[in-house]
Design a protein that fits this description.
Blueprint lengths: L6 E6 L17 H6 L4 E6 L1 H4 L9 E6 L2 E6 L8 H12 L7 E4 L11 E4 L5 E6 L2 H9 L5 E3 L6 H20 L6 H10 L1 H5 L3 H12 L6 H15 L6 H12 L8 H15 L6 H13 L3 H4 L16
Parallel strand pairs: 1-2, 1-5, 3-6, 5-8
Antiparallel strand pairs: 3-4, 6-7
Length: 316
């Protein structure tokens, strides 16, 4: 169950091939340019250029100045860009409610989302626990926004997880975010049951309790709590064991319809998937075949079968 509307994705401009880096070059991300670009509208940003820095320019770094993280010239820490960058980031991030995700540049003092080098004023490395100033503001203002770095997207599982999250984010924005009807939240939860379970069974139970709304919370408060818990849960990678649990749940819907040898074949494919012998697409394709033969309205609406366009070639 994917949205037909193009998704809006923020991205560090250098990842789209724009020559905005400190050395006048770029850091083109093939996946963003060749694959994801067919499904999204990009909104490129270069924070350094945004605060008026030149191309090319002197390198910058993060330093710890009495427990205050600052953005300074790499060779002269008295040249301080901290206030400019913080002001730019705060203002820019206030206008990103339309985005469904953001791809940042790793190892960037402005855009790095984790493991950034932090030095002291004399240039000595203190630790690798820093966060780029723009990235930090982005994630603080929009904690439920799917955010990833270019380097991490080279990992197949992380790439698929990010794509799945941006599509769910878009579905939420289109179906629930502007609604004042509890029914729309209930329908959303129902349609995403198995997709959520594939990431965290506990989260699915927790979200079910929220939807039941025994505490009679106002709808906006309920939606905020639900969406926050949902997006946190989806960060957990849906591994083979979790997928197999979901597949066996779904298999139960056909126990009275399919013939014994068909049931055995599905069980075999699920086992082979768990053992890493076949991709997830193998048992899913057979399940979809059974759904055509024995339609089930509840299963037909499940986002689990179509979390993103199959044409993206991500299913493993």
């Amino acid at each position: 169950m994917t949205t037909n509307k193009p998704l809006n994705i923020g991205i560090s401009a250098c990842l789209l091939g724009e020559k905005v880096r400190f050395d006048g070059g770029h850091k083109s991300l093939t996946f963003a340019q060749n694959t994801l670009s067919k499904y999204v509208n990009y909104h490129p940003i270069c924070p350094e250029v945004g605060i008026g820095m030149s191309i090319p320019r002197k390198p910058i770094r993060l330093i710890d100045d009495n427990q205050i993280i600052k953005l300074v010239d790499s060779r002269d820490s008295s040249i301080d860009y901290t206030n400019k960058m913080n002001q730019f980031a705060e203002q820019k991030c206030q206008h990103m409610a339309h985005l469904n995700g953001f791809i940042l540049t790793s190892k960037s003092p402005s855009c790095g989302m984790e493991r950034m080098k932090v030095f002291d004023k004399d240039g000595n490395l203190q630790h690798r626990k820093g966060v780029g100033l723009f990235a930090k503001e982005l994630m603080q203002q929009h904690p439920n926004l799917p955010v990833e770095e270019d380097g991490r997207l080279s990992d197949k599982s992380l790439r698929e997880n990010f794509i799945e999250r941006i599509y769910i984010h878009a579905q939420w924005q289109n179906q629930v975010a502007q609604s004042e009807q509890l029914k729309d939240l209930i329908d959303f939860h129902s349609c995403h049951k198995y997709q959520i379970m594939a990431h965290s069974y506990q989260a699915y139970k927790d979200l079910g309790k929220l939807v039941a709304n025994h505490d009679k919370k106002p709808i906006e408060q309920l939606k905020e709590a639900y969406f926050s818990r949902l997006m946190q849960a989806l960060k957990q990678i849906a591994g083979r064991k979790k997928h197999c649990n979901v597949l066996m749940h779904i298999q139960g819907y056909f126990k009275r319809d399919i013939k014994p040898h068909d049931k055995q074949e599905l069980s075999r494919l699920i086992l082979h998937y768990r053992q890493g012998l076949v991709p997830l697409l193998a048992p899913l394709t057979l399940i979809k075949h059974f759904l055509m033969l024995y339609p089930n309205e509840y299963l037909n609406q499940q986002s689990y079968f179509n979390p993103y366009p199959l044409e993206m070639g991500l299913s493993g």
